[in-house]
Amino acid sequence: MACGELVMQEIRRRYVLPGDKIAEGNYRPLMNVIRTGNAVIATRIGIAETGRDGVKVIPLSGIYIPRVNDLVIGKIVDHTSLSWEVDINSCFSAHLPAQDVFGRDFSPARDDMSKHLAIGDMITARIVAFDRTRDPMLTVQDRDLGKIPRGELLKISATRVPRLIGKRGSMIQTIEQATQTRVLIGQNGVVVVTGRNPEGIKQAVKAIRMVEEEAHTANLTQRIKVLLNVPETPQEAQANSAVTTPKPQDQPVQDTMEEVEEELEAESEK
Amino acid sequence: MTQTRNLIDENGKRTDGRTINEMRPVKIIVGNIKNADGSAYIEFGKNKIVAAVYGPREVHPKHLALPDRCVLRCRYHMSPFSTDTRKNPAPSRREVEISKVMREALEPALMLEDYPRAAIDVFVEVLQSDGGSRCAGITAASVALADAGINMRDIVAACAAGKVDDKIVLDINDTEDKEGGADMPVAYMPRLDQITLMQLDGKLAPEQFNECLDKAVEGCKMVYEIQRQALMQKYFGNETEVKEEQ
User: Fold this and answer.
1) Which of A141-145, B90-94, B174-178 ranks highest by mean pLDDT?
2) Does residue B117 carry a pLDDT above 60?
């Protein structure tokens, strides 16, 4: 604990605009920064963090740029005889090879691709390959990846995703418990809300929109709790009971969501 | 052009009451267009200009895409109601040229190599013009690009200087542009200390040229501060320090 606090103290945060000098000296440039001479310069609007391992800027605006191993939610927009084209809310359209779904012995003549995934379907997928020279390639061959059967779809800015998840998933847990919904979040800023109660879904969407708009402000979790009428003190007990209570229907979808959350939490912790 | 009247009076005041080193009032609002990825509205004296940035996004038609970097496309356009007499909305020779110089003024600040095979579209629409609209357009477009979250080396600020009644003055307005001796629009990256646009319409002696350029750069630095304030206001409100969540 004491060690954790020590690390926390060493990270210095400040607001920056493109071109601002963050630090001078032998720092490692990590994310959204460039080195010019001895100085580290911000390239985006955001919060600069100067830590022991280097300097980075957490951006507050911008579109989604794919990264390998990201979990994304995408929409099938087209297919060729060998792959599906997936819109992943980015400037690059992703490809899901048909072999990924049908296996090595896939034959375009024999297998009907639209039986598995039709144009307009939403999928949860992981990015397996992406670099400067080629478009992102996806896979659905992992536990709980694949087609999303139902839910309310909304898009938020990809830069708001870590905030929506919160520290160790605190924000999204608060929303899910208060509204009796499950929230599936893709790193690309696409969010799917499912639940039995339409009123709950409406509330969850409202809360997510609020997180998106006020992402950079302090004490947001508190304000979300006020919005959703969450009592403040017994939250821990409630959290434990809600996690253990099995929810009716949507069992596979729930698994998918929990998996995604774990992934994203791990991602945000990094 | 022969001068028909004095543009600077005996008290050293210009046609709109400014002194020679005074800029017109500048106001910038960030994020006024919800549909765009980034946007800005600028009032530079009587100029009223909206800039919107879309992207990085897929390039259409596909053959325009570059394999190693992003395509930057700019469109400067004056609304038919932006001038005294109706302006034909079709792109004129002047608008095509300004679109080009605007693109070239913004390009050095952008890290286009970060987005290969993509395109960034910048639209600058002049709602009301009063001289110096290309500078105001570049200023607004640069803020809109930062708002869109595109990787930038620096923010581009632009301001003009010129010669009026044989005196070098800051920030030429429409009357001074038409009746004055010279007009020099300059776009400048303050942190990198680099000029990305410099045009000159008129005649200047070498020493006048230097004075004019220095004055324009000073103007750019003033504009830069206003750009910073506008962006800070939109993203961080009145806070200047990061507050830790409890």
Assistant:
1) B90-94
2) yes
Cβ contact, residue pair A17, B232, below 8 Å: yes
Average pLDDT over residues B155-172: 96
Domain edges within chain B = 26-233
Residue-level pLDDT at B219: 97
CA–CA gap between residue A143 and residue A201 (Å, rounded): 26
What is the pTM (predicted TM-score) of this model? 0.86
Mutate to test the interface with A, among B145, B245, B246 (most CBs of A within 10 A): B245
Over residues B212-227, mean pLDDT? 97
According to DSSP, the residues that pair with A154 across neighbouring strands are A191
Residue B148's closest chain A neighbor by CA? Answer: A62
pLDDT for B40 beyond 90: yes
Domain boundary among A59, A82, A105: A59
Residue B56 distance to chain A (closest CA, Å): 6
B26-233 is classed in which CATH architecture? 2-Layer Sandwich (3.30)
Task: Show the beta-strand stretches assigned E in chain B.
Answer: 26-30, 38-44, 47-58, 71-78, 118-128, 157-164, 167-170, 182-189, 194-198, 201-202
Q: Distances from the Cα of B132 to the Cαs of A211, B2, B55, B158, B175, in angstroms?
A: 40, 21, 27, 9, 11
Please answer yes or no on whether B154 and A32 come within 8 Å at the CB atom.
no
Q: Which of the listed residues A147, A175, A193 is the one where a domain comes to its end?
A: A147
Flag whether pLDDT at B112 surpasses 80.
yes
Same domain, residue pair A213 and A114: no
Give the mean pLDDT of A200-222.
87
Q: What is the ipTM of this complex?
A: 0.91
Q: Are B125 and B137 in contact (CB under 8 A)?
A: no
Burial of B60 (0-12, 13-18, 19+ CB in 10 A): exposed
Based on the domain organization, do A226 and A126 belong to the same domain?
Answer: no
A19 closest CB neighbour out of B150, B155, B239:
B155
Question: Higher pLDDT residue, B1 or B24?
Answer: B24
In the structure encoding, which two tokens stand for residue A183, read together?
């929230």
Q: Do A19 and B241 touch (CB under 8 A)?
A: no
